[in-house]
Fold:
Amino acid sequence: MSIFRNSWLRLRYILVLGILLCCYGGGRAYFHYTDGFSVSGISAPWTYDARWEVGSLSEAKRADLRDILSQKFYYLAKGTQSYVLASEDGRYVIKFFKQKHLRFPRWMETASSFPLVGDSLKRKRQRRSSKRDKIFAGCKLAYETMQKDSGVAYVHLNPSDWLDRELTIVDKLGLEHTIDPNAIAFYIQRRGESVHVAFQRFSQEEDFDGAKAALRDLFSYLEERSERGILDRDPNYINNLGFIDAKAGTLDVGNLTMDPMIKNRVEYSRRMIDHTAGFRGWLESQLPPVVEEYDAQIRRLERGPQTLNQGTYHG
Structure:
């Protein structure tokens, strides 16, 4: 009898372990095939906040926005802050914020009143709220002062009721979803090409002159951006840069902020040297003939603004 009981207990343990492993494996497989993207993942309870108002659009611009949103948007990629979907005509991207990093679920709201975990959950809520505010502030800054070099065509950071058509999005699995854009935070950009994609193309085509011109354009753009007092808080900000209509600009705007410190030439030079060193290493392995141009730009930067090469990349 005891042997039978022990065997049954072992079988139960094995079944429970098998179920747990299946659940874990299924979850990992789902995340792999979907990148974790879902309608619920970009949705969150949301109230009006005057800080994120950007002024009303003219009728002409509202019509343009409706035309953009009348297209289907197809899943393209994910970043640290958002999911990126490309418009059907290939000209725009829409970025939905990863709400799992920003929202505060109702169960956490309830549990924050409990003695043992309340303080910890309140701090967590504050961190998420602060993170959301910084991201929204960066998007608003890009829309209001950097439309040309960020490509940001519209930001929707408050609930609205005037977007009079539903938006069709297609996830990574090819499944269509219809959502109400009035109820979801997002921003729209002209589609650009990231720095790494652009330079990989230069490498494949062995277009060293094009790569050098693009590098000069990047340095010129970053200096001009710093002179406006605009700082990217992300220390690896080369990943946030790219080319929009063949001109250097900022593709990921969520970490942008106004900071007069970056106008200081010494501080700007230090950041440029420290934060682009990894990109130099990538150039060394993928585009060795371009490293000399990178080093020349750094030297000019250290000598002063009057010696910076104002080269232009024409695509």
Q: What stands out?
A: Residues 40-190 form one domain.
